[in-house]
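Practice problem: predict the structure.
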Amino acid sequence: MAAAVVGLEALALVGLAAGYAVGIAEETESSLSRTLASIGLFLVGATILASMARAWLRGQEWQRMATLVLNALLVPVAFSVIRGNGALVGVPVLLLAVTGVTAVLLAGGSTPD
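Answer:
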């Protein structure tokens, strides 16, 4: 389940990057350099999340804490978005974050040898 959550987060970042790219193509973005920087950041984040999803699928351990921290940090972000009249975006982000934290906790930890 955790692999699916971080995989979905990776796809969401790719979608955001694509949306910004469309904005560049349609010349609706006010700052080309800022938009390109955002696209780059989204793609770096998507790459990291995709590698975390891959690690979950392979049964590795390094991604466990990273997934937990990332999703825990999304909770206050989601509340900020909701408070800023962005419930349409904020509520799904909150649900994804809570699902991610829950998935990590349900996945359990490694047992010491």
